[in-house]
Amino acid sequence: MTSAGGALLVVGDVITDVVARHGGPLAPGTDTAATIRTVPGGAGANVACWAAHWGCPEVRLLGRVGADAADWHERELTACGVRPRLVVDPQAATGTVICLVDTGDAAERTFLTDSGASLRLEPDDWSDTLLDGVARLHLSGYLLFSEPSRALVTVALRAARARGVPVSLDPASAGFLTRLGVDRFLGLVDGLDLLLPSRDEACLLTGLSDATDAAAKLSRHVPLVVTKQGRDGALVARSGAVSAHVPAVPATPTDTTGAGDAFTGAFLASLVAGAEAEDAAREGCRAGAQAVERVGGRPPGRG
């Protein structure tokens, strides 16, 4: 049981999402009709917003953006109840992701990613005072995919461990994980208390094809592993064994962008409130179901 109270600190990416929803396959060399919206996103920012939406009393976010969209992102985060600390990069633009959502294929999505300023977070952006009053620290896995932000992860992990603050991480991207290398990833996240992979990420990190086996194996490296499986719910694993299979909440998908972030945000908010992991995973599944019925990766704002 996690003691209730305290803030959640999220460190991660703040991104501008351009969501293009199209019906059926793309037509190469010509036009494909689509509905296009520009919305705030980024895995780290989305997690923070969903945690606040799910009742976490104080959610802080450390991220890096370009001057081009800093004010907009700050307003959008604040509207979701998040306290942003956005470092404005003097050189790079805000990261942008083009999300291609095939409405004819269960709203599955493909990302074209320009990380921009988001992966230029660096140790100088960190202050140990960010942990004052913090019950949990959550790191976006995207931070592991550039040298400056990898260095920041090391500093943040060390600071959290020194204060006894539990740390969680979402691996973020099976594609980027492949390029980083599994062994390197596992070395970088040594000391985590909680890992929140997708099914594909869990299988990639273990070399196993079965999600249950993969979750169990990962929980020998990280004390608590919660594997997100979309329409198949979630697995909770500890000490080399799966302790619970939490069913998904039925939903009609519109856009699956950010569903995993919604799960993570609600899960972490529930842990901060004192819930056990299995109950927190049920809350995560509820949030994921709400997320897939919305366009973009954020919950509705408070304003």
Summary tags:
single chain; about 300 residues; alpha/beta; UDP-N-acetylmuramoyl-L-alanine:D-glutamate ligase; nine-stranded mixed sheet; four-stranded mixed sheet; 13 strands; about 30% helix; globular
Spell out the blueprint of helices and strands.
Elements: E1 7-11, E2 15-22, E3 34-41, H1 43-53, E4 59-66, H2 70-79, E5 82-89, E6 95-102, E7 108-114, E8 134-140, H3 147-163, E9 167-170, H4 174-180, H5 182-188, E10 194-195, H6 199-206, H7 211-218, E11 224-228, E12 234-238, E13 241-246, H8 259-272, H9 277-292
Parallel strand pairs: 1-4, 1-8, 2-6, 4-5, 8-9, 9-10, 10-11
Antiparallel strand pairs: 2-3, 6-7, 11-12, 12-13
Helix pairs in contact: 1-8, 6-7, 8-9
Could you please describe the fold and organization of this structure?
The protein is of the alpha/beta class and 303 residues long. It has one domain (7-25, 34-292): UDP-N-acetylmuramoyl-L-alanine:D-glutamate ligase (3-Layer(aba) Sandwich), CATH 3.40.1190. The chain contains nine helices and 13 strands. It has helices spanning 43-53, 70-79, 147-163, 174-180, 182-188, 199-206, 211-218, 259-272, 277-292; strands at residues 7-11, 15-22, 34-41, 59-66, 82-89, 95-102, 108-114, 134-140, 167-170, 194-195, 224-228, 234-238, 241-246. The chain has a nine-stranded mixed β-sheet, with helices on both faces. It has a four-stranded mixed β-sheet with strand order 3-2-6-7. Strand 11 (224-228) and strand 12 (234-238) form a beta hairpin. The protein is globular, with a radius of gyration of 18 Å. The relative contact order is 0.17.
